[in-house]
């Protein structure tokens, strides 16, 4: 999901700069619409975490908080405004960040 969000954002910036500008304008002028979109993405992250916990692939006491952490951590790669700007400091690759985040949710083994 993270890679798909990143690919969608990167492709839109590259191939459809005018559409991307319209999205940026919407973020400035109609935050309610953007907020709904962010809430939908957050809900998907939460469903993924809940399902991962249910299947024993993830461990967290608070799936909603874990989902918010995931969403925040990937914003650099998926947020329309941030994806267009070069990073001000070194940023891990998307693959490195995704691996780190998945490892943070893996169940702990042993004492």
From TrEMBL:
InterPro entries with a match to the protein in the record: Tet_transcr_reg_TetR-rel_C_sf (IPR036271), TetR_C_27 (IPR041478)
Domain Tetracyclin repressor-like C-terminal: 2-85
Organism superkingdom: Bacteria
Pfam families the record matches: TetR_C_27
Protein's name according to its UniProt entry: Tetracyclin repressor-like C-terminal domain-containing protein
Protein's organism: Methylobacterium trifolii
